[in-house]
Amino acid sequence: MPEWEYVRCENCGLVLCQTVYEMSDREWKQINDGCGEKFGHDEDPDDPRWVERLNCQAKLFAGLADQGVWEPEMRFVDYGCGDGKLADYVQNELNVSKTGMSSSHKLLKYEKFIRPEGENDFLRDEDMKPGSFDMVVSCSVFEHLLGRPDVDEIIGLLNDKGTLCMHTLVCEEVPQDPDWFYLLGGHCTLWTNKSMALLFEQYGFAGCAYHVEGRMWFFFKDRQRFEQLRSKAPSIPGEWVFSDKFVDYWKQKPYR
């Protein structure tokens, strides 16, 4: 592995790994291929709470279905789903849901770099048409994106009333610690509250919600859907924060 060099935007604080941005496509693919070594395993010493977080997120999505925020005809996709663990957990939660709506809801799976062997329920590249999804879930993906073209690709999958649901690092300061999780592997774009707020504004989102326990932001294109979630939130387990702008929940708190 090379020595990693980083640059920081003086305006918004966004930190980029310049070494990764200057790599060839072949070198970048090799790094992402290496991430596949963790597929099929629940334990990750670099991120020991990740299964706990996924279970919380699965309960969150089951709650969206139970409360009618996730309607049966809506298309939800987990973009960059890895081995598809989150989608599987969501299906398990829906199977035990009291509403019995599990057969009508499915979190679709898409993985751009590595598809686990024997898995055939993943969407293909040709299935990922712009504007074809009601919600795009991006879990631990935005820290791996290479610039605006990658962001455009993900947000471009949303239809006119679509919602981006995202879990990623948002922090004010990057620790000067080479063993810090987000300075390892393929993490190449580290977001601050200001850089994320700029992204929220530049793409014209109409409302933002943050689910604290699931560590997930919801960026709404459609104001009506935003208000629908706000009205249903008391019936969905967990703490919620709502705002017309990006919810900078971690601005005054250390990111866990």
Secondary-structure topology with pairs:
Blueprint: E1 6-8, E2 15-17, H1 18-21, H2 25-35, H3 50-66, E3 76-79, H4 85-95, E4 107-110, E5 133-139, H5 147-155, E6 158-167, E7 189-190, H6 193-202, E8 207-211, E9 216-220, H7 223-232, E10 240-243
Parallel strand pairs: 3-4, 3-5, 5-6
Antiparallel strand pairs: 1-2, 2-7, 6-9, 8-9, 8-10
Helix pairs in contact: 3-4
Characterize the structure shown.
By secondary structure, the chain is of the alpha/beta class. The chain contains seven helices and ten strands. The chain has helices at residues 18-21, 25-35, 50-66, 85-95, 147-155, 193-202, 223-232, and strands at 6-8, 15-17, 76-79, 107-110, 133-139, 158-167, 189-190, 207-211, 216-220, 240-243. The chain has a seven-stranded mixed beta sheet, with helices on one face. Strands 1-2-7 form a three-stranded antiparallel beta sheet. Strand 5 (133-139), helix 5 and strand 6 (158-167) form a beta-alpha-beta unit. Helix 3 crosses helix 4. The longest helix has 17 residues, at 50-66.
